[in-house]
Amino acid sequence: MYKILILLFLYPSLAISSNFTLDKFKIEINSNFLGEEIMLFGQKKINDKVIIIFEGEKKNARLYRKIKENFFWINKTKELSEIPSFFAIFSSPKISLSEIFLIPGITKKHYLISNYRQELYEIRTALQNKGLYHEEELENVDGSLFLKKFKIPDNIPAGNIAITFYEIEEGEVISVSKKNLIIEKRGITNKLELLLTQQSFFYVFILIIFSIIFSLLSNLIFRKK
Amino acid sequence: MNFYLPIAEISINIYLLISLGVGIGFISGLFGIGGGFISSPLLILVGIPPSVAVGTTTVQVFASTSTGVISHYQKKNIDYQMGITLVSGGLIGTLCGVLLLNNLKNIGLIDNYLNSIYIVLLLITAIFILYESAKINLIYKNKKLKLHQHSWIHGLPLKFKYRKSKLYISVLAPLSIGFFIGMLTGLTGIGGGFILIPCMIYLLGMKTISVIGTSLFNITLVSFTSLFLQIYINQNIDFILAIFLIVSSSVGAAIASRVIDRFDQENLKVLFGMLLITIASFLLYDLFKTPINLYEINYV
Question: Which of B261, B293, B299, B300 has the highest number of chain A CBs within 10 A, making it the mutation to test binding with A?
């Protein structure tokens, strides 16, 4: 079924060049958001290597490293800046991080996978623990066709995820194409966050009114006769 | 069935959340407590970020005490002079507590400190309850207990006459108690009634009739202030989580009020003490166990 889908989608460009797409380019975070599965698929020249990198918006972050002190596990904190909110590397055939470190065309553009440094390893591991970092191989469907299903977790921050498609030949980037995946909060989820950040007083006021009404109501409904 | 919590930024099973709320309400109703010091650690145990658990518990505390204070106002059971003194200390304490929470969050030690505070509070309360229960059962069953004795507190300066409670004591004592409880509210989200009430009876020597109303008056105003401070300084109150907790805990409390007569009060106290020790044990285990993930990242 995937094959038919891929062939239909890519039919106009089958003989032209390597390409990729997603089954959706917008994810809405609403009250029943549990994360979302994304399907990435495309085509490549049979002998070429492709690397697709998903990189979320860069934000300030804090990295906590747990260390044991007198029987207790405590956090050591480090302030970080420009850390992507999501990061995924998909390749076909499988290309390890050590190999990627040797491709300057990629490492210069993606700081998180730029070198062997321990700090970067710790950030990648911390993101992986939250489901925000993936490093996987694309499934090969028919020599030139590939696909991959992966999950965007429910703790994904809202914002754009830049998707960069690299075609690699003999360790050099020979072509690059870009697309965007938009993650946005919608409905009540979005309204509440906006209210909290922009109109805090009103947020507390509504909360207080709700609290009193609910408490009075439940006292009225459930009180012992 | 899961539900996405917009401020906590995680989805949580709705049945787990409702069960938790009903359970907290049931325990609160059964044992006559506000429930804040149980709900905060329990929310953390089910995966709510500690800062959000603290902020949201403050809403639950406010909701559960605000209606109570109205009822005590109608019955004229509030000592306003004492209440205002306690609240004055409480407001400064809350501000300190909220700022301390923010600082702990920033340096990444919130889990350790909050867990340690909860463990100490839960264990002290459990020991106190079990000791009191044992004392009543074994030693003083047939003796009348003397509630208040003169201590060093009554020798403090700046004495003031609290007419309703018929007390002539230093304002420093209720101010300090209010400050300590306020600090706990700001830092942990709890109302602190389980500490405040024994302090008012045993340390200040207040009459039992106005203790509950005055304590509720203090907790309502302090948690009300704490709500604003938490929102402005920490932005850690999850609206959806708060509403779920308020509604489900009200149902739990209502169920408790219908079945409470079927239980022996002294056995209930022992059960409550054991429950507190169990929760404290889980939190203690959390501090000692080797973490699954050595690295954690949070966006600012």
Answer: B299
